[in-house]
Amino acid sequence: MVLSSASGNPANSLPEFAPTAGAHPWGTLSLPASRLFGTDGIRGKAGELLTAPLALQIGYWAGQVLQTQSSMSRTIILGQDSRNSSHMLAMALSAGLTAAGLEVWNLGLCPTPTVSYLTYATEAIGGVMISASHNPPEDNGIKFFGADGTKLAAPLQTAIESALRGKCLPALDGSDRYGVMPPTKPAVNQWGQHYHRPELIQDYMAALHRPLLPQVNLTGMKVVLDLAWGAATGVAPQVFEQMGAKLICLHDYADGNRINVNCGSTHLEPLKAAVANHGADLGFAFDGDADRVMAVDASGRVVDGDYILYFWGQDLRQANQLPENLIISTVMANLGFERAWQNQGGSLVRTAVGDQYVHAEMLKLGAKLGGEQSGHILCPHYGVSGDGLLTALHLAALVQRSDTSLADLMDQSFQTYPQILKNVRVEDRERRLNWQQDDQLQQAIAHAEAEMGDQGRVLVRASGTEPVIRVMVEAASVELTEYWTENLVLAVQRFAT
């Protein structure tokens, strides 16, 4: 489809589309003034921000924009987590996509990385996942992937959002070839089709095993899995059992009312208790869409993304698969991890929080391992996106090959600096996203940084996925960390009121 760009406008200009009757195919939308696309797609409360009418139009405009990127395919992969609102949003989104002429392959319940992998492995034009990841049940989200299986490029997200807002977008490549301008109504007699394709999930599962079996298996290893009532409930047990592990599963069926509630990667107490009670070798907890994972060793210690990157980095380096001994992480990475890796001759580069920033830096520097403290790990040797199941399998296999335990590996690794992360709820979206404009809050942060000097660091940021401002303080002592965390949390709470 060739659409002309707005004449006479610079490439970064988004002029208002002339509002006429029927300018949007299914009526006008009431949208927030701030950007819809955050650090991980579009996310918000189902029924408030995320409604069926909005999902319908997102699907339609996404279909229009994605078709500017390929004339060869009209297929798009669709998946969802277990939230009660996911069916509603998936069906509305599919209606929009098919109205745009695309062929929707609906996988149903599956982890987010399943959509990413199948988008990459097939000739699909893109992929979309209905999930709010680790958020509570009342939230939901829409994540888009490009044809290569990675998060949809920012210019394409901008194009979709601009069309939703009734704006025309100049050519995406700087020419007149790929301009996006909303038509007055959907094209007639160019409808796509919707197909249920859950059998494709088996291809994803086979891809997880391919680098490991038959050389490595998990026979004799007792593993606890916390599946968070979410997207991994139908896949993770099969994947681990086929590797030979003896399993104990928690929260192991799809329940949209309880997804992530006091369980999963953000609530590790049930996993710790189960590992201890069953005498397990280790345990893994996934979030609602299983694109991240946190582990627990037999002693109950948390093995977060920093430790996973450290262990996997050592393993890849020994196999000569880690160029320049380089790991990419974020500003959240613990100083203890960074200094331990540097002591082994490695280097660590930090990015902003968000796997898309980690991925972009990995591409820029040619890195083969990166991720976040939260357990979102990227290793292009084995996968195209962050994948909790893939990461868990490789960590378990690493432990099995080492002929030791995860607890022993932890003993031989590093000590983290005391780090406290607090979330302060700020419901007002506009206020939350513009927190840096508040002088009093900025002064409080500057004061804390000046007082700690080189003995600590502060990170305050608005979450791109939840209605919170996150306050992180890391310092050489617990007392220093606690003191400045309390001070900064109070400063953010004053700002929020």
Count the E strands.
Answer: 19
Any idea what the shape is?
globular
| CATH superfamily heading of the largest domain | Alpha-D-Glucose-1,6-Bisphosphate, subunit A, domain 3
Summed up, the helix count is: 15
Number of domains: 3
- In spatial order, strands of the major sheet run 1-2-6-5-3-4-7
CATH architecture of the largest domain: 3-Layer(aba) Sandwich
SS-derived structural category: alpha/beta
Which CATH first-tier class of the largest domain would you pick? Alpha Beta
Distance between the termini: 49 Å
The third-level CATH topology of the largest domain is Alpha-D-Glucose-1,6-Bisphosphate, Chain A, domain 3
Strand content: 15-25%
The biggest sheet, with number of strands, parallel, antiparallel or mixed sense and barrel status, is: 7 strands, mixed
Low-confidence stretches: 1-23, 174-180
In short:
With 497 residues, this protein is of the alpha/beta class. 34% of the residues lie in helices and 19% in strands. The protein folds into 3 domains: 37-198, Alpha-D-Glucose-1,6-Bisphosphate, subunit A, domain 3 (Alpha-D-Glucose-1,6-Bisphosphate, Chain A, domain 3, 3-Layer(aba) Sandwich), CATH 3.40.120; 210-411, Alpha-D-Glucose-1,6-Bisphosphate, subunit A, domain 3 (Alpha-D-Glucose-1,6-Bisphosphate, Chain A, domain 3); 419-496, Alpha-D-phosphohexomutase, C-terminal domain (TATA-Binding Protein), CATH 3.30.310.50.
